[in-house]
């Protein structure tokens, strides 16, 4: 029986490395992390880029997972499985945070809310399951955009819709915001989809660290944010703990 093919093993190692963190990596970082010569790493990265498994940022020259690989990674995971693995953690997150919890996945250039836990109080609330949210104006959508799980569909509409005066409709500003999401590991929306409301979201990862969905907290801006209009650190911590727990259940070993 033939032994393992070294080039495939190295390509797999590069893909795992890129999937292991929220930021892009340069050629030198990839080579040093895996103990490869720069020429060897560059050749593998070029091949992976050719088949759309890896993308290179034109400005920085750094690499990240490509859309084709991300779509392959999410195809194994049924939405119902994602929802069922998240139920207990979503309920616990709502109880601990005191806020509403939503779980989202991409669908036709939008975010489909597949699970919604009401805020645990007596206030009037409407069930959001089945609702489609905009990618660029929701914290769930920003997570899916930032990590390549969803892509905007520019041909669908003439431009990004402004829901409020705070909505990010300028492509350059949105791109910078998505870079910040990748670096921080979570996203926020502060009165971007509706005035007076805010939300935060974190990625849910599956096997290999690929992002397969997002979980978020939402509510009135004065509950989600502090006096300076910034998301409350305690809520961010609770959210990220829940996202990591769900990710572990889905096979994301690093989480």
From TrEMBL:
Domain HTH iclR-type: 5-67
Domain of life: Bacteria
UniProt source species: Streptomyces eurythermus
Keyword annotations from UniProtKB, A to Z: DNA-binding, Transcription, Transcription regulation
Pfam families: HTH_IclR, IclR_C
Domain IclR-ED: 68-252
Listed SMART domains: HTH_ICLR (SM00346)
Protein name: IclR family transcriptional regulator
